[in-house]
């Protein structure tokens, strides 16, 4: 189940909630009860391991 990070624009409360893809997004802040909540998006980290991803990657020393 995905985890979503939310922040209230009114009071600044940050919280994380596990929700199904079919669940509606949270709009009411659990702390101040105002309808000022929005999702906070962040970049997912990606690490490529192994050979063959890009020609400048370190490899076996073979010429390109």
UniProtKB/TrEMBL annotation:
It holds the Pfam family Zn_ribbon_8. Residues 1-42 form the Putative regulatory protein FmdB zinc ribbon domain. InterPro entries: Regulatory_FmdB_Zinc_ribbon. NCBIfam families: CxxC_CxxC_SSSS (TIGR02605). This is Zinc ribbon domain-containing protein. The lineage of its organism: Bacteria, Bacillati, Actinomycetota, Actinomycetes, Bifidobacteriales.
